[in-house]
Write a structure and sequence with these properties.
Keywords: Membrane, Transmembrane, Transmembrane helix. The chain is an all-alpha fold. The chain contains 19 helices and no strands. The protein has one domain.
């Protein structure tokens, strides 16, 4: 536990109050640390053994046509490339981690307060997702790049990054409708209209997975109590955004449309807390980066000094991480102790 909390504390302490435009040394060192920490882990993460089983029983396709006939061709291509180089399973995690860290870093550096954004990704997005469900993590990483494109009002690239993410986990395609409203004024009606127009396209792309998702997320009896807690953490900045939205729009006009869309999406997830906490569990990971942006930008507005709001933001994620490690059976069984192939 102290390894994880120590890394987070170091990142947070380095980030709070660090508002320089360039933080090249911070990001280079942090990226190297994260790739090493995530990529060379050994039997750490709840899906580690599951992906190792998939790796052992994976046989690369004999042609590109066969590759793209299967589900999530991007991950198959990644596994096939690592196997073709004669490397072992650890290097699949290293390769995936390198892609993830590149996505995380690019997402953070597109915004003000970039070091803090990267630090806040660590407790959940990096540990709980990036070190476990690497297919969804990769999809989420490319979704973050689509959020950057959305901020730049680039509709085509917003869609392209989502479709690339779909090659690792098909569920991310449900965010395709946001491409239609990139560069437009954001409101509930326009968001609903884009969902109505591009929603069926996403549905067609997910058609062969619909029965699986229906049985798992709609008809299934399994619930996720942790999803409710994580959703509460995600929801935390939304009331403050509503209160200070005029100030946010005035001081951060370029990112304001993305933040407004983030608040609408987060609020739209509320019914899932009752209908399907398992579906909420999966979607939480996709929207948490948006919630972190809300928390960081609103934190800079809501207090007399940005540093005060950012200390509270770092404290909220630190407290969540502490209680998760102390109270979660998944944390105890999957992440403790942390082991690394360098020290075996």
């Amino acid at each position: 536990m102290f390894v994880y909390l120590g890394i987070y504390s170091g990142l947070a302490l380095s980030a709070v109050g660090n508002y320089r435009r360039r933080n090249t040394v911070f990001f280079v060192l942090t990226a190297a640390l994260l790739v090493w920490f995530m990529g060379f882990r050994y039997e750490t993460g709840c899906d580690y053994l599951g992906y190792r089983h998939r790796w052992v029983h994976y046989f690369p396709p004999t042609s590109l046509a066969q590759l793209f006939q299967g589900q999530e061709a991007g991950f198959a291509l990644l596994m096939g490339s690592v196997k073709a180089l004669g490397l072992d399973y650890t290097w699949l995690n290293v390769a995936a981690s390198a892609i993830l860290v590149a996505c995380y870093t690019r997402f953070a550096t597109a915004h003000s307060f970039a070091p803090l954004i990267l630090a806040l990704l660590f407790p959940v997005i990096i540990i709980q997702l990036g070190m476990s469900g690497i297919r969804q993590a990769l999809a989420g990483g490319f979704l973050m790049l689509s959020f950057n494109a959305f901020s730049r009002k680039e509709r085509l690239w917003t869609a392209i990054w989502i479709l690339i993410g779909m090659q690792f986990h098909a569920s991310v395609v449900m965010f395709l409708p946001i491409a239609l409203i990139a560069g437009r004024q954001i409101n509930t009606l326009r968001l609903a209209a884009s969902l109505a127009i591009l929603g069926p396209v996403a549905g067609l792309l997910l058609a062969d997975r619909f029965e699986t998702y229906e049985s798992r997320y709609i008809e299934g009896a399994v619930t996720s109590g942790g999803a409710i807690i994580r959703y509460a953490l995600i929801l935390l900045p939304v009331p403050f955004f509503v209160t200070y939205r005029a100030s946010v729009r005035r001081q951060f006009p370029d990112v304001y449309p993305l933040l407004k869309m983030a608040a609408l999406i987060i609020l739209a997830l509320a019914p899932l807390a009752v209908l399907s906490s398992i579906a909420l569990h999966r979607l939480n990971y996709y929207v948490m980066p948006l919630s972190i942006l809300l928390l960081v930008y609103v934190g800079a507005i809501a207090f007399r000094r940005a540093r005060q709001g950012h200390i509270l933001a770092a404290g909220a994620y630190g407290a969540y991480s502490l209680f998760w490690f102390m109270g979660s059976s998944h944390a105890q069984s999957c992440y403790l102790p942390y082991e690394n192939t360098w020290f075996l």
